[in-house]
Amino acid sequence: MAYMKRSPWIIHYDGSSCNGCDIEVLACLTPLYDVERFGIINTGNPKHADILVVTGSVNEQNREVIRNIYEQMPQPKVVAALGICACSGGVFRECYNVEGGMDRVIPVDVYVPGCPVRPEQIIDGVVKALGVLEEKRARMKAGAPAEATV
Amino acid sequence: MNVLYAIVFLILAPLAGGLIAGVDRKLTARMQGRVGPPVLQPFYDVGKLLEKEHVIVALSQNYFVLAYLVFIAFSGALFFAGGDLLLVVFALTLAHVLLVLGAYSATSPYSFIGAERELIQLMAYEPMVILAAAGFYLATGSFYVNEIAAFPRPLIVLLPGIFVGLFYVLTMKLRKSPFDIATSHHAHQEIVKGVTTEFSGSTLGMVEVAHWYETVFLLGLFWLFFAWSPVIALIAVAILYLAEIFIDNATARVKWGFALRSIWLVTLVLSALNLVVLQYFGGL
Q: Scanning A21, A143, B136, B273, which has the fewest C-beta atoms within 10 Å of its C-beta?
C-alpha cells in the first residue's frame, strides 16, 4: 500500500534566503492554500519528515547544517529546492560567500524556480516531489537503495 | 470481568481512536477556516510511518515504546472488561513512565526536555485521576468498572467536582492546548517535537496508535459519569470532545509551572470538596 504519497510531512530549512520564499512557504499552510488538505504537515523535526524543503542558497556557514538535517531524515526522503536561490544561487551566485544552489551539498530531487516562488508553484513542486518519493519507496521495497544514483 | 469486551476494545479502539483523531483534525481545520485533511488522514499517517526506514537512535527505545503501547492497550482493555479502576490508573501511569524511559534512552537534549515535561504532566494529572477513582468508590462502593457502570443513579450528580476536575486534566491527557507541554499533534514547533523527537518510522507509529487507544479509554472514563443512560452518555462524551477541540484552538500553550499549579489547584479544591461532601452528606 502506498501511504507515502498521502502523508508527506515536510521540514523547512531557510538557507541564506531573503525570507521572500519562506513567507510563501508559510502562506501554503494558511487557510487560503491549506496544504494540510493533502496530508502535508510542517514538522520541525527531521526525524519525522519526508520532504526537505529548502529556500535560499548555500554558504560556508549553513553547509554543515543542511547536510546534518538531510542525513537525519529516514529514507525514503526527497529534497525540494524552492526559489531560484535554492536552485542555483540566483542573483547571489557570484557572491564571495555563496557556494551556489542546494545541489552543491545534498541531492535535490525537485527544482522550483521563482523569485519568490508562488504558493501554487510550491504546491506543484511538492506534488512532483511526491512522485519521486513514491518511486523511492518502491525501490526500497524491492530491496534496492532508495537513491537511484549516489 | 468480561474478556469479550476487552477483545472488542483491543480490536475496535484503534479504529475508533483513529477516526476520532481524523474528525478532530477536520474540525480543527474548519475552526481555523481551512478545508482540512481527509477524515482517514491519521490512518494514512501511521501507514506511512510503517513504510519508512527504521532509524534507531538507541536500541532500548524500541522496547520501551512497544511496552508503552502494550500497557496503554492493557489498561484500556482492563477498563472495558470491567476491571479494577485503580489497577487501570496505575497501569496507565506505568505506560507513560515507559514512554518517558524511551525518550530518555536517546541522548538528545530535545528528547530529554520532552521526557522531563512528560514527567511533569504525570505529576500534574496523576492526583486528579487517583482522586477520581476514589470518588467513584465513595459514590458506588466499588472500584470495579462494571459495578460503577451498573450504578443506577447518575454519577454526574454525585461527582460534579470530580467531573470538572477530570475534564480540566483531560486537555493535558489528550495533548491539547493549553496543556500540550510534552508534545503536541499540531505543527507547533516548540522544543522540536518534545517527547517524540527521537522516535521515527514504526516507533512513532506505535506512539500514535497508543494515543488512539488512550483517547478511547479516556472517553470511556467520562462515559462512567453518565453510564445510567447510554444515549445521554454518548451525547455528553461527544460534547466533551468537541469542547476539547474548541479549547485546543482557542488557547495558547501555557508554561509548565502554570499548568502544574492550576491543575493541582483545581484538583485540590474541586475533588477535595466533592469527596468531603460525598463522605459526610452522601447518605442524604
A: A143
